[in-house]
Fold:
Amino acid sequence: MFFIFYLEHIIIKVEFVLFKLNKENLAKNSESKDKQLIERLQKERHQLNSLIIKQKNFSKIKLFTISNQFNKEITELTENSDKIKRRETDHMLTSEQRQLLIHQQKVSLKKQLSKLDVEYNNLKMKFEKELKEKQIKEHELQQKMKNEKNLNSAKQSNVDKLVSFMVLKKRIKTFDFFLTGKIYS
Structure:
């Protein structure tokens, strides 16, 4: 860009010199040297103008190319940024979903554990009740058997006493018969 400004400055100076020379030459009806100088300076001016135009075109092309590259890079960076943001959002959602799922599973497990605790306590109470009833039945059965044994023992004892009494009575009767000769019924 600096070069373009420099060339434009030179062209302005050349035009000024040409203008001055044209003015002087017109006034003097100048000589051929001056005409040649003017022609040469006009030619140089034309060359410098075409060089400036070329330089401007080249600068525009260069600026356009750089601008295109810059826009492409911005587009790529924007797309990459969007992709990264989407990934982060997906990861955040996935993480939040995992946390929510874990929380739901935790709540569900706590409920199941609570139900299992209640069920365990109910089964424990039922088992203890059945065990107590079984112990009571066994105790009652033992008492019944003990009572039956005692009753059987008492019966046997009574039977033995009765038999002993009957035997004794029969002996007494037999002994009385021998003594008195009478039979007692």
Observations:
- The mean pLDDT is 81.
- The chain is about 95% helix and 0% strand.
- Residues 2-139+141-166 form one domain.
